[in-house]
Fold this sequence. Notes:
By secondary structure, the protein is α/β, with parallel strands linked by helices. The chain has helices spanning 3-12, 14-21, 66-79, 90-96, 98-111, 145-168, 174-177, 183-192, 203-206, and strands at 27-33, 42-49, 82-88, 119-123, 134-137. A 5-stranded mixed beta sheet has the order 3-2-1-4-5. The longest helix has 24 residues, at 145-168. It is globular, with a radius of gyration of 18 Å.
Amino acid sequence: xxxxxxxxxxxxxxxxxxxxxxxxxxxxxxxxxxxxxxxxxxxxxxxxxxxxxxxxxxxxxxxxxxxxxxxxxxxxxxxxxxxxxxxxxxxxxxxxxxxxxxxxxxxxxxxxxxxxxxxxxxxxxxxxxxxxxxxxxxxxxxxxxxxxxxxxxxxxxxxxxxxxxxxxxxxxxxxxxxxxxxxxxxxxxxxxxxxxxxxxxxxxxxxxxxxxxxxxxxx
Length: 219
């Protein structure tokens, strides 16, 4: 690891270091992926650490290649105290809306942790009902190592799920775009209509002609 990368990782642990210096031992980073897609679940991940993550290239999952994300996912699981995923499926998203479903997935991830955290660092949101002190951080997946780690594990898990859905629902290209609003996805919706895992509450799913109102989001 280069000196420049070591310095970057030190800066990325600023929130965690402040918490440790304040007496906290177990720091949890939590993030989600899948708020933007037209199909599939939203997935949250909670990662608990008690020391800095020594992981070259650790950063927001959107800034990491697919191959490197897979390697980081393995290393994060090895170095973390514990990791837990929380899911909210397309039916829950349609029933309670995407923001509420995101917070539900985050609560599920926290509830499944094998080690209770002393402090929770959250990307942007406040989690209702969270049992632990929490710190929402705008742009947290680029400012906190634990949140960045959570974003990577969540991304790897959701991408694998959507690749599996490609075999179950062929023709939509889920393995390629993972449910996001790409041109090929809209073309498939035009040809085939929505399948069982599409989010009916998302307007472009039921009215593909409105796709111009919906920007692709690969987060």
